[in-house]
């Protein structure tokens, strides 16, 4: 019985195992077929950029394309990097590399071309690399190139037409006194194309002077000087600045930051770009991101068969927007009343009040109540503070009076001694210049003390005009003045003494009449002549009396005294 059961069981199991094996193979085959079919059904688009991913405009193009990319579409990227190198060798290497890569992958259903260089490349190698694929372009600045492909039924796209006219009209509305427009361009494909478009605007604005600053032809120093030379009553447009004449390369952000360092006028820029930096004003802008989105939507419809190429058209609506930097509006005091309500304000950070008004309002009410309660406590303090202020003013007045001569208004002898002591304590080289009026006693005796006082005040007033951070005049005693020069440099001290001597060169008006007043000047230097403060004054005094003995109305340094005179 056992053997029959086993044999019978084996006979029944074999057909079941066979059926199970066939079912598994069918399932696996179906999954594989489905996977292959799914892979085959994936739609493939190639994006060829003229530049590299480091360019902020390329990042915006990719964001716009990706925003319209369905889940069943594969998007691949190729970067020509023409901003860094754009010559025959670079283009040949890119062509060979792309040709090889295309030979190793499944054929693409469409091609999107970013900017002028990519479109030119496509046209050159189209029959060899992209014979059947429809092409869509974005970011093209060359109007002649765009018109060239307009009649091609297999190429559609959006030209990057910068709204120069609209921006200049708005700029003249804000700055009606502007007479000159400056454009920052370079020798790149974009710069060359926009330079031509800029030149064409001269017909629209015959009263404006159109100037161009080509960064490719200027060193950084030359560029800096030209930017600084721009008048404030001017309009500045930034197109592109990828290089200078020294081969130095710039990103848009670096270029704008450089320009903003040396210009006093706002920088207009006509591409909606929130990555270019904080120093751009903006304007009525072409939206790179929106244009890329529209092109990708059209490409998807064509690849899926929902629309034929001959029915692909693009409208300007949504491609242009007023985009302005709120910080720059504040900096240049430009009112928002000039711009439409739908303007996009970059860096428009809400004020503290706007963000916290609901919290601040009750706090303010509480503070007001507390202020009202404590107001009466402050009344007594007002009188006290007023009294303290008057006492401080009196103290300052007395201190000032104690350090200044009441007749001439110059610092007095006490202030001189204090200042000189401080200078010598710091071991700071200095020169003491002693000045004594010649025949002053005769003025007092013959013309009276009032005339003598007038003479002292007249000399003091002229000495005051000599005051500098290095030179200070003091009333020393009687008809003597003394000056401290905070330097012992011979040239500087010689010049200071000569300036003092010039005080006597022109007549003085005394009681309405011209009168000649003369003086003798002696000077001594620390530490060259002596290390002692009192001795330094004596040395200057000796030099002054030496010139009096020689005939007065002159000057002498202690170092120039005759050898037979005993020096200190």
Q: Please, what is the oligomeric state?
A: single chain
When the domains are counted, the total is 5
Kindly state the percentage of residues in helix.
Answer: 40-55%
The shape, in one word, is elongated
Largest sheet properties: 5 strands, parallel
Strand order, sheet with most strands: 2-1-3-4-5
Segments where pLDDT lies below 50 for 5+ residues? 1-11, 31-40
CATH topological fold name of the largest domain:
Rossmann fold
The CATH class name of the largest domain reads: Alpha Beta
Strand content: 15-25%
CATH architecture of the largest domain: 3-Layer(aba) Sandwich
Backbone structural class: alpha/beta
- Report how far apart the termini are: 147 Å
Mean pLDDT across residues: 87
Number of strands: 19
Rg for CA atoms: 44 Å
Helical region count?
A: 17
CATH superfamily of the largest domain: Response regulator
Break the fold down into its secondary structure elements and pairings.
Elements: H1 2-41, E1 43-49, H2 56-67, E2 73-79, H3 88-104, E3 110-114, H4 115-129, E4 135-140, H5 143-150, E5 155-159, H6 164-174, E6 180-185, H7 189-200, E7 209-214, H8 220-228, E8 234-238, H9 252-262, E9 267-268, E10 282-286, H10 288-304, E11 320-325, H11 326-331, E12 344-346, H12 352-403, H13 413-425, E13 430-437, H14 440-447, H15 449-464, E14 471-477, E15 480-485, H16 490-502, E16 508-510, E17 513-515, E18 519-526, H17 533-549, E19 555-557
Parallel strand pairs: 1-2, 1-3, 3-4, 4-5, 6-7, 6-8, 8-9, 11-12, 18-19
Antiparallel strand pairs: 10-11, 13-15, 13-18, 14-15, 16-17
Helix pairs in contact: 2-10, 14-15
